[in-house]
Amino acid sequence: MFGKRSLIVVVISVAVGVYLLPSPIDPKPHILKGPPPVLEGPLAVNTRLQKGRRLFTGKLHGPESFTADVEGNMYTGTVDGKLWRIGPDDSLTLITQMGQNRPECGSSTDFEPVCGRPHGVRLDRHGQLIVADSYLGLHSVNPQTGQKTLLVANSQGADGVPFAFLNGLDISSQTGVIYFTDSSSRWGRRHVKLEVIELNSLGRLLSYDPQTREVSVLLDSLYMPNGIVLSPEEDFLLLAETSIGRILRYWLKGPKAGTKEVIMDNMIGYPDNIRLSDHGTFLVGITTPRFRKLMPPFLDMIAPYPAVKRFLAKVIPLSWYNALLPRYALVLELALNGELLGTLHDPEGRLTWAISDVFQHRGRTYLGSTDLPFLAVVEGPWES
Fold this sequence. Notes:
- 12% of the residues lie in helices and 36% in strands.
- The protein is built from five helices and 24 strands.
- A hairpin with a 5-residue loop joins strand 18 (269-276) and strand 19.
- It has helices spanning 2-20, 112-115, 192-198, 298-302, 306-315; strands at 52-55, 66-68, 74-77, 82-86, 92-97, 118-123, 129-133, 137-141, 148-152, 166-171, 178-182, 203-209, 214-222, 225-230, 236-241, 246-251, 260-264, 269-276, 282-289, 329-334, 340-346, 355-361, 364-369, 375-379.
């Protein structure tokens, strides 16, 4: 009897202790627009993303975003804080380390604030790499010498609010203005799972004018703003709100300038980067699909319940959530008006999964990721 009573006391004590522990997140209830869409029509399952191969296995870990120059070179950044050049002959050259070059870089996300983590990368009109490093700020990098110039530090931020998670960017070819996102003013990249579970609206869309060196806040109260892309005419940009599965259009010109509108909601998955294809459409990488099965998706189930989220954040290690993520690759193709034209799938994750970026270059389609130790590439013409 004493043993049973002792066990009950221990269980109650542990339960009370866990209850009293402060939670790292402060979630609000979120009401979903509906269940995930059905996999039919343009969303019908196919295997088109399985027709590819992997490059640089074990050498590139998490090639998240891409850009290319007129000479055919491509550029990307990885989890160890490094920037790389990929030659037309598939050669790989280190350009620079965004932060400190330490042996621990890439071994754990705990070292990312020191080593750096380049996310969005683009080339400006002067041939310089513009890099949104999640921890170290917005930089200009000479792609030949690796020399780095800090444009805006995370600590500087905008309107008195520091950056915590710089992410996507694009650059106007007409004005040189850099548009970029800060996914959260609370959580850095290494705590992205807490950002998604908390489901806060602490993200912003910003711009940096290289002439005046001024940062402007274009939109605030965004749900994990991530990838952005300018339209071909640069009259608007599209922006992915990853944590709620939504894509916004923000008008830069015309009678709607300075306003936003939702062009896609209740998506089949959580969008990451958005890019222009080589034939004038938008390509959206889906980092995690959201499928109808016997039970609703995990994030759908917990979205309305802040108490459940606070409890899970206290007791479940962040690494455990990886077990809930399906090995499924998915790309959406959208018309310029936001209409879904088609999708490409790899249902078993044979080539890749958790796609961060879809970049077309020299007849290839490169599929980025935030954490996978290779670069996936699909050869030949694009078919959605």
